[in-house]
């Protein structure tokens, strides 16, 4: 799409990454299934080698490095986030691992947010440390004071906001300002907000990561990641993803592009329903705390309002202390909030969470059991009645 800057994001997501006139007038881009690209001549083959070596990656050489289908999704998300170029990977965790290893070497120091997506903590503690990277965790509420944790060998600061499981809001611009002034690369996990509700690069980050598995694809049926990069970050991330073998499958990429078209509409409903349910939960005697930055009394609300254009449908709650049997009685028999990992699909989900096991810089103090809820596209009253029946089972199991 040309002159896309002139259009609102809602218009852009309908049109980005497709060109009907280049494809017999067909609305959606074709799915290219390809490992091999045939070269016409040695000269052409050598040209693709020069293209790779220069870091341009403009030409297609081999399926692992992407096809025109891959490029369509990369271009669409890049333009939504105001990036330079993006790299699609096999899953969100792949985009994170490729981005971290793109910039870190033995002897470097990584500053990583304490309340991050759990598997990234495992990658840092079990693998990056083994390869000689020094890893320290910072309090998500640290803001500009992160300057005190920076060491001469700090190479990367990693952010996520709102945080996984506990939904603290991080002051992204305060942290990226510190990083920029010292030449430190910043990588942010932007999965919760999607490209529609927050733009990390406009707030000073170098790489913005999405688990497209979640809202971008939106239908709980595929795994895919994407790292949107500014110009300086693109070559290192692309080269590392390619060298490490991270690539997305063509059908999954096509489905993610299809999901992207309805992202704005879906998110509005997810946010509306999540807000309704979160407010309802706040009034329940069984609940000690709801964690959702879109609520006016949430501790992160001021930052959310300042920096974000909206919220998604994922939030947390802490119950008043109860027995394990009571908690299980509630969660084991839900009709609509089925129990499962992941989120961002059309359906509601719930999982018990255990933040205490995943925190070191800011210990988790709550005594009661914690939950993560995903408000799906069902009727909100049906969802509330499902939770109401859950609380009745919890009380009956006392
Ligand atoms: C799910 C998730 C990921 C990982 O994405 P996968 O596609 O499951 O590998 C990364 N970050 C956040 C915040 C997530 O929720």
From TrEMBL:
Could you say which protein family the record assigns here? Belongs to the trans-sulfuration enzymes family.
**Keywords, ordered alphabetically:** Lyase, Pyridoxal phosphate
Identify the PANTHER family for this entry. CYSTATHIONINE BETA-LYASE-RELATED (PTHR43500)
Q: Which residues form a coiled coil?
A: none
Protein name, please?
Answer: Cystathionine beta-lyase
Q: Could you read off the lineage of the organism from its UniProt record?
A: Bacteria, Pseudomonadati, Pseudomonadota, Betaproteobacteria, Burkholderiales
Which cofactors does it use? pyridoxal 5'-phosphate
- Gene of this entry: metC
Give a Pfam family name: Cys_Met_Meta_PP
Q: Which Gene3D superfamilies match?
A: Aspartate Aminotransferase, domain 1, Type I PLP-dependent aspartate aminotransferase-like (Major domain)
Catalysed reaction(s)? an S-substituted L-cysteine + H2O = a thiol + pyruvate + NH4(+); L,L-cystathionine + H2O = L-homocysteine + pyruvate + NH4(+)
In terms of InterPro entries, this protein maps to: Cys/Met-Metab_PyrdxlP-dep_enz, Cys_b_lyase_bac, Cys_met_metab_PP, PyrdxlP-dep_Trfase, PyrdxlP-dep_Trfase_major, PyrdxlP-dep_Trfase_small
Question: What pathway does the UniProt record associate with this protein?
Answer: Amino-acid biosynthesis; L-methionine biosynthesis via de novo pathway; L-homocysteine from L-cystathionine: step 1/1
